[in-house]
Amino acid sequence: MKKDQSNMINTLLEILLVSTRLGFTSFGGPVAHLGYFHEEYIRRRKWMDEKSYADLVALCQFLPGPASSQVGIGIGVMRAGVLGGITSFIGFTLPSVIALIVFANILNELNIGDAGWIHGLKIVAVAVVAHAIVGMAQKLTPDTKRKTIALFALISTLLWQTAFTQVGVILISGFIGYLLYKQHSESDDSRIHFPISRRLAIICLSLFFGLLFILPIAREISPLNWIAMFDSFYRSGSLVFGGGHVVLPLLEREFVPTGWMSEEAFLAGYGAAQAVPGPLFTFAAYLGAVIDGWKGGLIATIAIFLPAFLLILGTLPFWDSLRRNPKIKGALMGVNAAVVGILISAFYHPIFTSSILEPIDFVFAALLFSMLVYWKLPAWVIVVIGAIGGSLMSLL
């Protein structure tokens, strides 16, 4: 018994050390993160075989939430059960959470509204989100039907800018996708097995949906600000298909129009989030810290990642049957197409409208976009150049 406990502790420490190192060094966004995971966990340490890793990635692409973080959690679960998943998540996420909370606390002490470097970071956001749109549109809207769904999502979310609009668009697009693509099928004979019981999975799924309905009610009847903040971050983390960039419009509409923070502070943090390694969802740590210091940062981080954790644990035992169901695949194709439209809507407002004020701003955004897309410079380099360029332009 003691030997088993010792082995478990050693395994958890190994997971923590490896995932923390990845948390400090994994720049470049979700696709890059998956490459880092493959190199470290699969090729070097052989914690999973190639096919199991590919199946795990497919599952995490299927679910809402931060795909790379969910893959990391899944690898930890495969290695050491639920504790392994928690340990892997903490190691990969904590470095960027700490960095962004520190950044938020610094900005809280400064008057950032007129700073040139802040304007530069806002232009960085233009380049980064434009890059995300191009890549996602090519992958998720390859045919006219899905392009039309994306256009519907764009029009709806731009003309009626509420959180309920986005939820409705996602649900309607999923139904349209189900109708249009329910006969869509691809051959897939692979199998994947995870050390999670169906009982635990059902508990996690019940908790996921229960919180989604209970938190808004608790928010209305409770005077506590942290419950309202937890609800906003949890709901945003629950409704994001397509990666970290899509969480931007959900969070922006939760916190800027309601007066929790200024648009300048929001976009400055989004630019800074590009400069740190790890998942983009840790942007929530910055927002929470702006609202309520380091405690707010921790609450926001837990709230926005909790749906991803509950979903990965809740769906692992059922994934084999789910991914072979063409109707579910069709609904997901519709949802993914809507994500593109939502992202374009967010790109126009608030990102483009608040960042590109003069021709020189557009020129600088085009330059940063080219550096990112064509010259393949790392994201953190783009952020540094954006901050310096913004400072120089303010002197002109």
Automatic annotation (TrEMBL):
GO terms for molecular function: chromate transmembrane transporter activity. One of its GO terms (cellular component) is plasma membrane. Its main location: membrane. Keywords: Cell membrane, Membrane, Transmembrane, Transmembrane helix. It is found in: Cell membrane. The keyword Cell membrane applies. It is a multi-pass membrane protein. InterPro entries: Chr_Tranpt_l_chain, Chromate_transpt. PANTHER family: CHROMATE ION TRANSPORTER (EUROFUNG). Belongs to the chromate ion transporter (CHR) (TC 2.A.51) family. This is Chromate transporter. It comes from Litchfieldia salsa.
